[in-house]
Structure formats: structure tokens, C-alpha cells
Automatic annotation (TrEMBL):
Protein name from the UniProt record: Alanine-glyoxylate transaminase / serine-glyoxylate transaminase / serine-pyruvate transaminase
Keywords for this protein: Aminotransferase, Pyridoxal phosphate, Pyruvate, Transferase
Annotated stretches, region: Disordered: 1-21
CDD domains: AGAT_like
Pfam families according to UniProt: Aminotran_5
Listed InterPro entries: Aminotrans_V_dom, PyrdxlP-dep_Trfase, PyrdxlP-dep_Trfase_major, PyrdxlP-dep_Trfase_small, SP_NH2Trfase/AEP_transaminase
Organism of this sequence: Haladaptatus paucihalophilus DX253
Taxonomy of the source species: Archaea, Methanobacteriati, Methanobacteriota, Stenosarchaea group, Halobacteria
Length: 394
């Protein structure tokens, strides 16, 4: 076999406005180019401590067990579910989006029995339905998606849901992949036992080190398991030795990704978490105003609208993939199509982290309007641009 000839790496310079990854802040990119040290180096241990403190601030928690899991957001998701769910446990999961289905798959692989609380795609869970599901099934663990990336819906009434679960002595796992750092999330105040996330969305950080937090009650369940979790790599009783007080070797951490996460979280702290939530609402609000003035319809009602992920209905007369391909080819702009039950019916437009800036939203509305008009949609591009500009105060 001959040596392959491969040129320099030259990926396109895209404007990332899909469901993730979002654009990476220049400071985060610079942090990734700093010198590598060992994963047990005293200097890296200091960095680990700083990352944990910054994650607690961003999650709004005092939980000791707050760490970045080595892997993408699905790794922190599997660490949460695979450690908390034991063989024979029953887990209640939602049916109102794609990622409730992923919760189900992971719970079943962990040996759990899965039951459902139903809601249509595009709607949040109704606390009354959650109450009925608890009375019928008496689950040990309840999982819900705080910000559903597949539908553009944010779950309200979180404290009411956790109160129902704890009233039945169940544990609560919250998927905050598309909310951490961009949408109001208060782990301690809302009484969430476990929350996991990914760094590549509202934190604007490359994937590779994914946030996870557990309270003492949840960690006690993990540490008192009779049977070890099925994943050695994601076993929190083993990771405790590395991220706890001992700092004992478990695996080689993704050092550069931890650097990146530290810098991304520094940016959160400098901006202030409440100010960051407000920025996402304002900038995404300008995007929403623009597409609605253009003549498009949001998938989620106003009261459930998710600022970090805007699900926009595909108008009549166009095909979703024609539009997304045109935006990539003509504008180097990425948005996404729908998943699951909404495949072909919506565009998923992210407004997250460093991508949540006035210039990116203005560019998106202009480019999307051109793409739709070019493909025969009945849209008023000028009205959309004017509404976006007005909402941005320009």
C-alpha cells in the first residue's frame, strides 16, 4: 500500500447556526493552543478545581459532584443514566421529543424498565400527566428534557415536576444539553438531582468534555449500588477517585478540551449567568421577530419557545434540504432540518453562545430569506429584515 497524500487541513469557514456545534469563541480556540501538560500534573489539578467551580456557578449548584465527563454530551448523558439506573429500576421518560427516546435506550441498556409520560412533539410535559404516570408506575427515576433540541420547546414548571418525583421518592435526571449557559437553569433551586449537558451548544466550546452534576442524594445511590455499572469508562464510583479529593489515575483526560471548557466557562462568569440568559432571549427574539415578519411560523408557542434552538416551520412550496443545502453552498451558513416526527417539517436554527450575536442573526435572516425566495416560497424578506433590525435596536 502506498503512502496516502493528504493536504493541509482546510475546512470551510462556516457560520454555525444549527443545533450545535455553535461558533467557538476566539478565546476558547486560543486556550486550546496552549501547551499540553500531564493529566496528573499539579498545574492541571489546579485547572480541574477551577473548572469544577465554574461549572457549579453555571449550573447554579453547590453540588460537590460536578465534573466534565471525558466525551461528548452523549457521554455525560450515559454517565448520568447508566450510573443512576440499576437493573430492576423503573425509569419514567418523556415521549415529546427525540432525546426522550435516547434516554429510553440508555436506561434499557443499563438494565432498567422504561415507562412513559406522553405529550405531543412540540409541547412540554403537563405536570398533571407526570403525576398520573407516577401514580400508575411508581418509577424510581424520572428523566425529562429541559430544552428539547428536536422541537424547540423549553420545559416550564420544572420545580413542580421535581416536587412530584420527590413526593414519590424518585430521583430526577434533567437533560440540559441545549439550556446550560443559555437558558435559565437552576439545579439547586429547582431540586434537580442530576443534570447533564454538552459544551458545544450554549457554552460555544468544542465537544469533548461534557458537564455533569449530581447532588449528594444521587451520588449516595451511585456509590451504594450492588452491581457495578455496565460501563467501566463512565463508572462514577471510579471517576470519583480522579475528580474527587484523591486525584488518582483513572483515564487520560482530554486535556486540551478541559482547557477549552475552562475558558468557555470563564466567559460565562465574566458576562454573568443572568446577563447571559437575557442576551440569548434578546438576540433570539430578534431572530424570531424576523422569521415571523417574513411570514414563517414558529413550531413552539410563545410560552414554550426555546431561545437557544428556534424550530421554524418549513413553508409550503419548498423542501427543507433544498434550503439547507443552498445556505451551505451560497452563504457557508449551517442550519438543520427536523428529527424524528418533525423530519421535513421544521428548520432548527440555533442561537447559542458566541453565535448569539446581532451580526449572525442579521446574516441568518437575510440569507434564509434569499434561500426561501429563490426556491419559490411566499416570503416578505424586507419585512423580516426590518423586524430583525428593529428588535436589535438598529
Amino acid at each position: 500500500m502506498e503512502n496516502p497524500t493528504v493536504g493541509e487541513l482546510t475546512p470551510p469557514d462556516r457560520t454555525l447556526m444549527g443545533p450545535g456545534p455553535s461558533e467557538v469563541h476566539p478565546r476558547v480556540l486560543r486556550a486550546m493552543s496552549t501547551p499540553l501538560v500531564g493529566h496528573l500534573d499539579p498545574s492541571f489539578i489546579d485547572i480541574m478545581n477551577e473548572v469544577q467551580d465554574l461549572l457549579r456557578y453555571t449550573f447554579r449548584t453547590e453540588n460537590q459532584w460536578t465534573i466534565p465527563v471525558s466525551g461528548t454530551g452523549s457521554a455525560s448523558m450515559e454517565a448520568a443514566i447508566g450510573n443512576l439506573v440499576e437493573p430492576g429500576d423503573t425509569m419514567l421518560v418523556p415521549t415529546n421529543g427525540y432525546f426522550g427516546g435516547r434516554m429510553e435506550s440508555m436506561a434499557e441498556r443499563a438494565g432498567g424498565e422504561v415507562v412513559h409520560v406522553d405529550a405531543p412533539w412540540g409541547e412540554p410535559l403537563d405536570p398533571a400527566d407526570v403525576q398520573l404516570a407516577f401514580e400508575e408506575h411508581q418509577p424510581d427515576i424520572f428523566g425529562f428534557v429541559h430544552a428539547e433540541t428536536s422541537t424547540g420547546v423549553v420545559q416550564p414548571d420544572v420545580s413542580e415536576l421535581t416536587s412530584i418525583a420527590h413526593g414519590h421518592d424518585a430521583y430526577v435526571i434533567a437533560d440540559s444539553v441545549t439550556s446550560l449557559g443559555g437558558v435559565e437553569l437552576k439545579v439547586d433551586e429547582w431540586d434537580i438531582d442530576v443534570a447533564y449537558s454538552g459544551p458545544q451548544k450554549c457554552l460555544s466550546c468544542p465537544p469533548g468534555a461534557s458537564p455533569l452534576t449530581l447532588n449528594d442524594r444521587a451520588m449516595e445511590k451511585v456509590l451504594s449500588r450492588e452491581e457495578a455499572p455496565r460501563s467501566w469508562y463512565l463508572d462514577l464510583s471510579l471517576l470519583e477517585g480522579y475528580w474527587g479529593d484523591d486525584r488518582a489515575y483513572h483515564h487520560t483526560a482530554p486535556i486540551t478540551n478541559v482547557y477549552a471548557l475552562r475558558e468557555a466557562l470563564r466567559l460565562v462568569s465574566e458576562e454573568g449567568i443572568e446577563a447571559r440568559w437575557e442576551r440569548h432571549r434578546e438576540i433570539a427574539g430578534a431572530l424570531k421577530a424576523g422569521v415571523e415578519a417574513m411570514g414563517l411560523e414558529m413550531n413552539a408557542p410563545e410560552e414554550y419557545w426555546l431561545p437557544s434552538l428556534n424550530a421554524v416551520r418549513v413553508p409550503e412550496g419548498v423542501t427543507d434540504t433544498d434550503i439547507t443545502s443552498y445556505l451551505l453552498d451560497q452563504y457557508d451558513l449551517e442550519i438543520a432540518t427536523g428529527l424524528g416526527d418533525l423530519d421535513g417539517e421544521i428548520f432548527r436554527i440555533g442561537c447559542m453562545g458566541y453565535s448569539a450575536r446581532p451580526e449572525t442573526v442579521s446574516y441568518l435572516v437575510s440569507a434564509l430569506g434569499d434561500a426561501l425566495r429563490e426556491h419559490g416560497a411566499d416570503v416578505d424578506v424586507e419585512a423580516g429584515l426590518a423586524a430583525t433590525s428593529e428588535a436589535l435596536g438598529r
